[in-house]
């Protein structure tokens, strides 16, 4: 029988050992100072920890009913877009990092679950999801300053692409639009009509800010969420903020939320 003390030491050692192993296997995260300024608000020369000029991050989502895309009880992802804090934005910022193999890049990093999420929630209305992902990364992702290659201490090729898609899916799940609207009694229905203020109230109760609510022929079709970021877009803190630039295109009342059939 080992003494109590020696088994305690053995336990301690095994804990130390297992934590040492998991530390040595994981890549060090990209660290930003805790007092990193908030994008669009502060200023900094460190473009790896301060998103600039695209300091306003938008998560855009679709409710596609014709043709239907994605699950009947979920919105789908359009993209994550850096905006210059004022409604203008840069696009296609780095032709050398435009890719036509997003699925392969994500698979190559072993991110099976992420790829499943993309296949479920990031849908192209014409059915060509891969091309849609390429378009979003090439046009918008390449303009996120904190996701530039030099920002990664131990860069492995295209890991910033994986970060872009992972962060977008994480934000999408965090806002959970379908559930938040449903909890407020706003559900898809053939005949019901909703007010814009009702939708804004439901969303702001969870997101803390209003969003842009877009309609197509009086039917709910797109939502845009806005954040400033403290630190990097991939690991920093997202602080919700008011929309900039465009305003909602939905009418004040009589908004249809058509079921996906
Ligand atoms: C994706 O395409 C890029 C550019 O052509 C290439 O360098 C990279 O190896 C490809 N990645 C995978 C996993 O196929």
UniProtKB/TrEMBL annotation:
Biological processes per GO annotation: RNA catabolic process
Entry EC number(s): 4.6.1.19
Pfam families: Ribonuclease_T2 (PF00445)
One MF term in the entry's GO annotations: hydrolase activity
Keyword Nucleotidyltransferase among record annotations: no
Signal sequence residues: 1-26
Protein name from the UniProt record: ribonuclease T2
The keyword Signal appears for this protein: yes
GO cellular component annotations of the record: extracellular region
Family named by the database record: Belongs to the RNase T2 family.
């Amino acid at each position: 029988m080992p003494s109590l003390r020696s088994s305690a030491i053995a336990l301690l050692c095994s804990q130390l050992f297992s934590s040492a192993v998991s530390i040595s296997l994981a890549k060090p995260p990209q660290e930003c100072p805790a007092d990193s300024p908030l994008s669009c608000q502060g200023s900094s020369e460190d473009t790896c920890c301060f998103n600039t000029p695209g300091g306003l991050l938008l998560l855009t989502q679709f409710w596609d009913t014709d043709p239907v895309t994605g699950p009947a009880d979920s919105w789908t992802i359009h993209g994550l877009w850096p905006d210059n804090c004022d409604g203008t934005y840069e696009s296609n910022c780095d032709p050398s990092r435009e890719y036509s193999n997003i699925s392969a890049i994500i698979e190559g990093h072993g991110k099976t679950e992420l790829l499943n999420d993309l296949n479920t929630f990031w849908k192209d209305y014409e059915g060509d999801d891969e091309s849609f992902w390429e378009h979003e990364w090439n046009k918008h992702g390449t303009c996120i300053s904190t996701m530039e290659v030099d920002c990664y201490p131990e860069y492995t090729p295209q890991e910033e692409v994986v970060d872009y898609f992972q962060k977008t899916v994480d934000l999408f799940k965090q806002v959970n639009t379908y559930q938040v609207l449903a909890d407020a009694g706003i559900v898809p229905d053939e005949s019901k009509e909703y007010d814009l203020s009702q939708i804004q109230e439901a969303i702001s109760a969870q997101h803390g800010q209003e969003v842009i609510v877009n309609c197509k022929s009086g039917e709910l079709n797109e939502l845009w969420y806005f954040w400033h970021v403290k630190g990097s877009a991939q690991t920093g803190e997202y602080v919700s903020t008011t929309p900039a630039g465009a305003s909602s295109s939905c009418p004040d009342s009589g908004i249809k939320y058509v079921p996906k059939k």
